[in-house]
């Protein structure tokens, strides 16, 4: 046995020797020599640190070092962005990627990724083209607008229209519409960054036409309406209709800007869902510019859509920031495919995942819960009780925030006394599955809302690998001492 830590460290294998091992040669073929060498050095550094504090330590064998290297490289090579099962009950979950692409959009995106495309090339004239032209004709058709363009999200769309149409001037907005969305993104902040000045009118709960009229002055550049997409004010309230706001703006030769937030190209009431304002309605009510998202209710890729008057759209298009905020060929290809679906309502219902999940009947979800329950109950048998429960799904991403969708799910209720901690352990175990399962904790139970469970067989198949850490109740200070004294 080596009798000193120094001798043990000297006995560690060299990098050159390790690189000749068959197992390491295989790693080099898979990951490349530079990364393997770097990882081997990190493993050996870790072993040196261990041996430095242990005079009787034994250096690991070559095979043990190569195995540590393999394990580290395997972990490093796993993609950070991974598929998950969204069983949170929120259909358009911002943290889980919002809308799922329909198959036609995914195929279009892959084609754009793997082939040269006419992104900014006019095939007819043989000259340089405009990338927005690939979707503009569809946005004109679906919204009734004269022109349209696309940027990378709706926050960018709001920024760009303000920076283009109201630099160093005032934009009038009702105090009750100064929204904040996820990530502490606030309308007043984006206005300041866009170089214009916010002019608040009215009160939090009530704003009248006269408030807008009285606020208009020499420095006014526009009147803006911001849709309260992630909250709702109820009770003693008043607001001005979009058509009346447009009339006020136009009497003073001002543009009326309408930010719809989520935005939807069809009337959701036709599908049994609450009504959400559409861009076509906004244009019909007199809006000169309308902005909305592509990856929320619309069900497409992340982007911000700007539609409206041609002269204003062209002014916005010429802003140098448009280039900084533009979308790439992949998202344009996916967006075009999604917009084409809206031309055929019957096909839209079948193929657009967002609409299909939002309109999924509770009876269908409940039937699925009946099928899934036995496998889930068996997987958690030693730790929790499983039962079917009624759930209230939500649309998510700020859309229709107070409207719930009747759903069904399975509640896993821990048998431990400290139910919250035990529920956390369940949540951790489900997140550790090959395809992580994301649910939510409510009243001491781990809830899996099944509204968005498409791959039922894949979900059930991996439950055999569930490993739940046994929950040990926390002992009071002094209890352990008393137990030790009785030993």
Structural write-up:
42% of the residues lie in helices and 17% in strands. It is α/β, with parallel strands linked by helices. The protein folds into 3 domains: 5-77, no CATH class; 85-91 and 358-465, Alpha-Beta Complex (Aspartate Aminotransferase, domain 1), CATH 3.90.1150; 103-351, 3-Layer(aba) Sandwich (Aspartate Aminotransferase, domain 2), CATH 3.40.640. The strands form 5 sheets. The protein has a 7-stranded mixed β-sheet, sandwiched between helices. The chain has a 4-stranded antiparallel β-sheet with strand order 13-14-17-16. Strands 1-15 form a two-stranded parallel ribbon.
Keywords, separated by commas or semicolons:
487 residues; alpha/beta; Aspartate Aminotransferase, domain 1; Aspartate Aminotransferase, domain 2; 3 domains; 7-stranded mixed sheet; 4-stranded antiparallel sheet; 21 helices; 17 strands; 42% helix; 17% strand; disordered C terminus
Please outline what is shown here.
The protein is α/β, with parallel strands linked by helices. The chain has 21 helices and 17 strands. It starts with a helix and ends with a helix.
Structural class determined from secondary elements: alpha/beta
Task: Say what the CATH topology of the largest domain is.
Answer: Aspartate Aminotransferase, domain 2
Shape: globular
Taking Cα atoms only, what radius of gyration do you get, to the nearest Å?
29 Å
Looking at the overall shape, the CATH architecture of the largest domain is 3-Layer(aba) Sandwich
Main beta-sheet strand count, sense and barrel state: 7 strands, mixed
The average pLDDT is 90
Number of domains: 3
**Strand segment count:** 17
- Cα separation of the termini: 37 Å
Number of helices: 21
Provide the low-confidence segments as ranges: 476-487
């Amino acid at each position: 046995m080596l009798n000193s830590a120094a001798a043990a460290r000297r006995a560690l294998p060299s990098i050159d020797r390790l690189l000749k091992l068959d197992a390491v040669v295989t790693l080099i073929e898979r990951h490349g020599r530079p990364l393997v060498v770097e990882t081997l050095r990190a493993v050996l550094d870790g072993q040196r640190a261990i041996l430095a504090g242990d005079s009787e330590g034994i250096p690991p064998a070559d095979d043990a070092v190569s195995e540590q290297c393999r394990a580290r490289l395997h972990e490093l090579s796993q993609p950070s962005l991974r598929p998950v099962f969204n069983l949170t009950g929120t259909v358009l979950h911002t943290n889980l990627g919002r809308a799922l692409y329909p198959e036609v959009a995914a195929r279009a995106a892959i084609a754009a990724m793997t082939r040269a495309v006419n992104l900014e090339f006019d095939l007819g004239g043989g000259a340089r083209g405009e990338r927005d032209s690939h979707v503009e004709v569809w946005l004109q058709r679906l919204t009734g607008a004269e022109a349209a363009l696309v940027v990378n999200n709706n926050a960018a769309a709001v920024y760009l229209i303000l920076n283009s149409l109201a630099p160093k001037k005032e934009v009038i907005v009702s105090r009750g519409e100064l929204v904040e969305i996820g990530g502490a993104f606030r309308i007043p902040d984006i206005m300041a960054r866009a170089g214009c000045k916010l002019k608040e009118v009215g009160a939090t709960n009530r704003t009248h036409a006269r408030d807008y009229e009285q606020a208009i002055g020499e420095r006014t550049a526009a009147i803006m309406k911001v849709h309260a997409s992630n909250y709702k004010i109820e009770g003693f309230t008043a607001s001005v209709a979009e058509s009346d706001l447009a009339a006020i703006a136009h009497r003073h030769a001002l543009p009326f800007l309408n930010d719809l937030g989520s935005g939807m190209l069809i009337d959701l009431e036709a599908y049994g869902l609450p009504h959400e304002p559409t861009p076509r309605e906004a244009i019909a009510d007199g809006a000169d510019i309308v902005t909305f998202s592509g990856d929320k209710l619309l069900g497409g890729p992340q982007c911000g859509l700007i539609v409206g008057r041609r002269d204003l759209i062209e002014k916005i298009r010429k802003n140098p920031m448009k280039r900084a905020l533009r979308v790439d060929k992949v998202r344009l290809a996916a967006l075009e495919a999604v917009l084409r679906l809206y031309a055929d309502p019957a096909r839209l219902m079948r193929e657009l995942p967002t609409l299909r999940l939002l309109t999924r009947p509770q009876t269908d979800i409940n039937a699925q819960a009946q099928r899934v329950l036995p496998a889930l109950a068996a997987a958690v048998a030693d730790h929790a009780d499983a039962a079917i429960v009624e759930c209230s799904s939500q649309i998510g991403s700020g859309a229709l925030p107070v409207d719930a969708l009747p759903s069904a799910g399975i509640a896993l209720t821990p048998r431990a006394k400290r139910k919250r901690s035990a529920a956390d352990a369940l949540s951790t175990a489900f997140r550790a599955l090959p395809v992580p399962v994301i649910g939510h904790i409510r009243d001491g139970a781990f809830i899996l809302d099944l509204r968005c469970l498409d791959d039922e067989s894949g979900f059930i198949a991996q439950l055999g690998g569930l490993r739940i850490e046994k929950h040990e109740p926390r002992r009071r200070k002094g209890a352990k001492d008393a137990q030790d004294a009785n030993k």
